[in-house]
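Q: Entry one of two.
A:
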Amino acid sequence: MAKNKKKQPKQGHPGRSQHGMVSVGQVKIDRGIDAMTPKFVRWYSQFDVDTETSLVVLAAVRETLYGYADSAPLDSVTEFDVRLLFAAMEELIEFQSGFEPAEQAEQMRGLIHMAWADYLDYLEEMGLWEKSNQDLQWLRSKLEGPSLFATDDLEVSAAPGELEDLLLTDITKLPLVHLARNFAQWCANETGPVQGRILDEDFIPNAAKALSDGVLKTFNTEQAEQVLTFTFMGLLRAEVVALEAPNQLSAGARFSEFQKSTGEVGFATIYMFMQTFLDSYLEMPEDTDPLVVETWGLANLWILEGIEAMGHEVAEPRDEQFSASVWEAAHQRMAVLRTLGLVEEGEYYSLPGFVAAFLTDVDEEIEDENLDEQQLDSKWDELMALLPDESQRLKREEPYTGKVLQLKLGLQATKPPIWRRVLVPMDLHLGDLHDIIQASFDWYDGHLHEFRSGGYKGTSYGPEIEEMEYDEVEDAFLVSELLKAEKDRLDYAYDFGDGWEVRIDVEKVLDSAEGQLPRCTGGRRMAPIEDSGGPWGWAEMLKAMNDSAHAEHGEVSEWFEEMGMEEIDPAAFSIEEINEALELEF
């Protein structure tokens, strides 16, 4: 079963992995900001702005730098990598949007961007900027640039039916879309609005020749044919062109909407086409030639860095772990994307906002002051209903009738004990078991994890991540390969910073089980909240929360309130809530 990634509200603070622990980076930030505060306040006062506002600006800068220092070394509060900084900024905003209404989350985005714009002005004017002018301009452009659905930046006064047209303004300017429109027209017509072309082995080469006077003229034969192949796949899936028997092409149901690219249907068609093209281009090649595979992996890494606002520098010297051939081929692959408009021109491989959105989740709110919240929700639902289903986990078509494992999931080092009992079909993979554990303990899958059989020195299993050296890939193993009989055991570790450990014991092997599967049938006590410092940190937080005289009672209470949990009952446990989460996942 494929893994269905879900977005859930984050818990804790993205820049503080353990409650009650202060890193060296945070100390450096606090000292730097505190030392700067008097001068910054005086500088800020020249704009007739009150002192409180200047302190709010520095508070936003401080919080962003906390997140930066959690993932990368920080030299000082005036010297940092601008791409890593912008990534930390976006993470802080995403964290806030996880539990705030959309309007408040957008206000948070505006506050952080405004604060950093002011802070950059201060650093530049006071001669404290320690990076290049290009870095300064890059960061400013990111702070000032509109997001995909930032209607204020687009000066939108959206009447019904016009909003989608405005969203398509930049997308339809892409050279790729221009090529696709010409290709669709060529597919549907011979010499005019008559019968379409025949799909045979000469189809793509003939198309490359016919369309060679456009963007394709910058590509070699192999590149041109590859781009056209992926373009054709997108046109077919988006129903822009249709395949009629015998292998004859014609204009599809959405041909005219694609050519005009207006309104909701036009947006949905463009979305479907772009998604298919990008998925095809970024998919691992079937060719097993190491040069091809390494080139694909390196280029995709640069694309991923572009999504995370940490674009790879085009002129950066070759990394010695890659051969000169791979390095050059990866740059050529990126050049194709640049020519198509999918990667921006400049010193770094960065992505236009709407392209990054196609590669992630297009889940931002469409906002407009002329529409109330209920109208916006309805409009967004109508739009998304036109888009393809993004769910990746396949639901069972028939009820599971095989053997079932009754597992006890015991969270280690917790007193009193915290545990769950679950029924798990034996045909699931370890990756599915990971999802079951996450749902059972109400965690959001925001950290690394691993399974281990045979104790500490045994075999490790984890997700397929290049940076991690697991012995085996978890999705390649069924649960039943490691847990077969009563008393079999498997260990699970999650969030290597907090150090959550779950012992998985087989209590019974059942011939079958009726009802929802997987299913929780028992358990004890509330699961610890993520980013609370592990078993010890969680216990200390509960102690502080329940003792009004405790030195950290106020801070901990505020932390829980931010999580929407004003009252905490550590003994609480709900089978119903866990099974709702499991049913949603599976």
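Q: Entry two of two.
A:
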Amino acid sequence: MNRKTLVLPAVVGLLAPVLAACGGADSGSGGGDAIVVGTTDRFTATKDAPAPLDPAYAYDVGTWNILRQTVQTLMIQPKGEGEPVPEAAQSCGFTDSGNERYACKLRSDLKFSDGNAVTAEDVKFSIDRARSIKADSGVFALLSTIDTIETQGDNEVIFHLKTADATFPFKLSTPVAGIVNPDDYEKDKLREGFSVDGSGPYTLKAETDGDEMTKAVFTKNPHYKGALEVNNGEVDMVSYEDADDMGTALEKGDIDLMTRSMSPEQIQKLSEATADSDIDLIELGGLEIRYLAFNTNAPEVKTKAVRQAMAQVIDRDHLVSEVYGSQAEPLYSLVPASITGHSNSFFNKYGDPSVSKAKELLAKADITTPVKLTLNYTTDHYGPATKDEFELLRKQLNDSGLFDVTVKGTAWDTFVPAERKGEYEVWGMGWFPDFPDADNYVAPFLDKDNFLNSPYRNSDIINDLIPQSRREADRLSAGKSLTEIQDIVADDVPVLPLWQGKQYVAASTDITGTAYVLNSSATVQLWELGRGVSS
């Protein structure tokens, strides 16, 4: 049977909380053949990044999808949409009217995968560890509003915040706040390699080839106590060189499901499959965005007018229709259209693409044209269409006569260290939100500890507007501050949003739970998968 395309909407920020499924170590099938999931994500331990799976370092969608299966967090984003709900905690909440004191009580009988008890001190150790190591990935910034952490007995953790932060429960649902076993993690040093020890629904065994993890074997953790119902005994995640190889493996039956990152052509082909196909395509609401980032200290783009002129020339509608079709939508802000607080700030400022307006911007700033630039992109992280996207961006900019652009593709394990060292003037990135709130499309890019290591600083955003937005428990009330931030970004252009995309899963028809295997933040929820009877 072909279910055609099951579409789950992602309307975030206005939905009531949804309760997570209840379960424990005895839930799930516990047996049967392993479910095999394909991915094009690559997991490499390099000299620049020797600890890719340490929660204090990891900060990309691929590594987080490993950690979310293995490392338990106090809170978790629910099966559907809505506010985060307790996971390792039995209850959490603000205990003051100013949203500056947040207390959590742990579930009883929590255990690490080795059988040792999880205590409040372990939670404090894990989160303080990430805060103190301050890895160059920038992931520690998610915990920046924490002032101190105290424990009361073995099962209560109290967070004292520097300032009000209504988004704090979301941050406790991210892997950087994951609980790790102090027996296996040093307080002031990252754990190198591919071992992970936590209290999550699965244990991990990594199969490697040199410095690369080629398969992640997730086995149901018999000691797991939490909110999740685990519907299988084992899931194997296999890394493929590219989307074509992954697609071939699904067709041959070597894998049961594939997700990141399918090509637009694969998605289109699967959507047109006949009713007797043994592969289902599931479309899910997504909050992924793509954008260009700028090193605002680089001579080529240091002048704001150059960045503004690029914003004025690039035709997002043409870019999306040519490369991604109906699988993406043009984006005119860092905050996606489906998130509370979104404003079309770039369209409001620049309107439709216009070479004449861009020429005028450059002339007023006495910029000699054509401006010579290199657009850098990664070849193996965001899918095979990235090259086509950057070739089209190059053409749009060069056809204006105002730019002389070349493009350069680099593998992810080289691309990220180069970007963090400031070696690129302009580079393309994607963002899968840590949690579905506008704050997570603003602070990681613009706060003082931004993950891009960008030199761009705006004191109004950092000192006033971000803190103001976080004080509003009702996220609709944060709209004024968030709109001001987005308007400043549209004027200064430290980043240039391009499009937001949908999510897709392709799976054999006998695999169940596929409608929930990804949430809106692109989190893989392997515990949802089961093996049923093919129809």
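A: Comment on entry two: Residues 120-133 form the longest helix (14 residues). The first strand starts at residue 5 and ends at 8.
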